[in-house]
Amino acid sequence: MGKPAHPRVLSESQARAVGRNIRVSPRKLNLVAESIRGKSAENALATLTFTRKRIAQDMKKILQSAIANAENNHDLDVDDLIVSEAFVGKNLTMKRFRARARGRAARIEKPFSQITIVVEEKGALESAKKKEKAAKEPAKPAPKKAKASKDQGSEVKKSTAAGKKTEDKAKAEKPAAKKTPKKRATSERAAKKDSPAKKKAVKKASSEKAAAKKTDAKAKSAPKAKAKKSQSGTKKSAKGKETK
After folding, report:
1. Which residues contact 71 (CB under 8 A, 6 or more apart)?
2. CA torsion sign, 215 to 220 to 221 to 223?
3. What's the sign of the alpha-carbon dihedral 118, 121, 122, 125?
4. Which end of the chain is less packed: N or C, by CB atoms within 10 Å?
5. Which residues constitute the domain of residue 70?
6. CA distance 181 to 187
7. What is the CATH number of the domain that holds 28?
């Protein structure tokens, strides 16, 4: 019997290619891998074509292999592909030595590395990012807050309406309380005016005022009468001499 099929690690919108036993250190290979991460497949091929690093040509072949896998094996759109991942790892290391002074030897290490390039469709990548954001964000209790705010607003409105009603009642009651003492005061004043003692006092005061006015008028008219009498007794002649 055969072995069970290994489950697919990548999604249906992804394809990859692995390059092993590349004769360069992982540190130097990562510098070239950084230049194509996140770029479209077309731009990544262009950058690798014109990069002056020796290992860029080997990496270009691996990228072309990943694009071919996406097109032939997974039916993905070549024009919509993006280099979503490009990670570097260690591989075997050749150990050599060189002769040094006094019969000693110095160690030489010749490292090899490997690279994995994953290409993905742009639309699928954007939708995956949106889903991740939605999963990370906590659920917002917006409707509950809205309801609470509405309840608070209704309570405030009710309280304001009740306050206005009480104010209106107080205003309506205040004038009634003020009118009663005014009416009593006016009735008392009218009763005092109609009393006989007050009427007598008013008559006396009016008679005294009239007598005082008469005496003043007589005093003022006395000198005027004297002056008129003196003028009537003297007459002027035609020559200007006074005659009696």
Report:
1. 78
2. positive
3. negative
4. N
5. 16-134
6. 10
7. 3.90.470.10
Out of 38-42, 45-49, 184-188, least confident range: 184-188
pTM: 0.52
To 5 degrees, how large is the angle CA 60–CA 66–CA 71? 125
In a domain, 77, yes or no: yes
Provide the 3-class DSSP secondary structure of residue 77.
Answer: coil
According to DSSP, residue 11 is labeled -
Domain count of the chain? 1
Instruction: Judge whether 73 lies within some domain.
Output: yes
Examine residue 127 and state whether it is found in any structural domain, yes or no.
yes
Determine, yes or no, domain membership for 196. no
**Bridge partners for 17 per DSSP:** 117
Which residues lie closer than 8 Å to 242 by C-beta, 6 or more apart?
234, 235, 236
Instruction: Tokens for 200, please give them.
Output: 């007598």
